[in-house]
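Researcher: Can you fold this with zinc ion in place?
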Amino acid sequence: TLEEQNDNPITRFQRYLQINTAHPTPDYSSAVSYLISQANSIGGILHKTLEFSPGKPLLLLTWPGSHSSLPSILLNSHLDSVPAESSKWTHPPFSATRTSDGNIFARGAQDDKCIAMQYLEAIRNLRNNNFVPVRSVHISLVPDEEVGGFAGAAKFVESEEFQALNVGFALDEGQASVGDEFRVFYADRIPWNLKIKAKGQPGHGSKLYDNSAMENLMKSVEVVSRFRESQFDVVKAGKAMNSEVVSVNPVYLKAGVPTQDGFAMNVQPSEAEAGFDLRLTPTTDPEEMKRRIAAEWAPSVRNVSFEIIEKGPIRDYLGRPLLTATNDSNPWWLVFKQAITSVGEKLSKPEILPSTTDARYLRQKGIPVLGFSPMKNTPILLHDHNEHLRDTVYMKGIQVYESLISSLSSFTEASH
Ligand SMILES: CSCC[C@H](NC=O)C(=O)O
Ligand SMILES: [Zn+2]
Ligand SMILES: [Zn+2]
């Protein structure tokens, strides 16, 4: 029918993708309204909008379970996206164009609007089959993940509303897999912003002398680069995955004495600065890392100083690294795995996520969380130009979540 042509899982996904929630001006209110309308069209879903920071809504959807006193299942997805450089895309990033081969192009197609809509479509299908969950199933749609989650998930996990959910297990986003197996993530790397600032002797651009700010900074950059290479060599030798080493990448350089049309070319400046994106593994000793930075990367004897901005928690409330067990000790892991294999799918070896998600705030509270986005045979395009997802992959993902949501919500062996 005409209605089915205009309103089906793919068009509903496309409509969500067409809402521009990219930074720096994400349209959160349209996204929240749309998701509430979707929840209403499913029926039996409660909704509540929380606002921990003005203009940054967090939508909480609840499918009540028959035994709602049992710990619940939380499905998380962020509302926001990173910016897109329109002119470099083959299809406009908020058009959600579907090509003849079935690829849907949009910022957020993989990261991570797919999972939000797949959660909802899976619940829609389960409800149509008269499935009733034992545990309550909550979906949190959070703002500002892409900028650190400080106005969203970080505040949410500290709230009374969150406490009241009594979450026993959660799913959050993962990454696409280029092969035939799904990937699953049991931890995130830990993001630090590192700024190295050098001071030094200013002087004439023609003069060779020691202890200029630029020389001091460049020595630091060389030391950091050597560390970077040592870590990358381990990866290149096949001894570790990218996410199992410490990464450090320069992201800005700031120096020079400004003039009207650029920089003075014959003045050696007295200050220079470099910024680095540093990612620790979940088990890196942060104190040792700080000692290394102080002693080797930015020693004060060379007139350099440094600043570390730690972006979020490193340990849980008991002081343990933020890891979710993927072995028999975690009954949720066994249920998760079984739900995947029961729909004929395979999982690759659990991994650490190379980047960082809001899952860390949940793990900080001691909640087991797996990062999972059911996209296989799919290029990894998060934050890239021409981000897209194939319609058939998206549809398969709905089926995978039906299996996951029904298994997880009816699992009652765990005492907690
Ligand atoms: C400072 S937390 C930043 C979180 C962000 N998340 C997705 O890309 C990331 O850079 O990994
Ligand atoms: Zn994401
Ligand atoms: Zn992202």
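Model: Folded with zinc ion in place. The first helix runs from residue 2 to 6.
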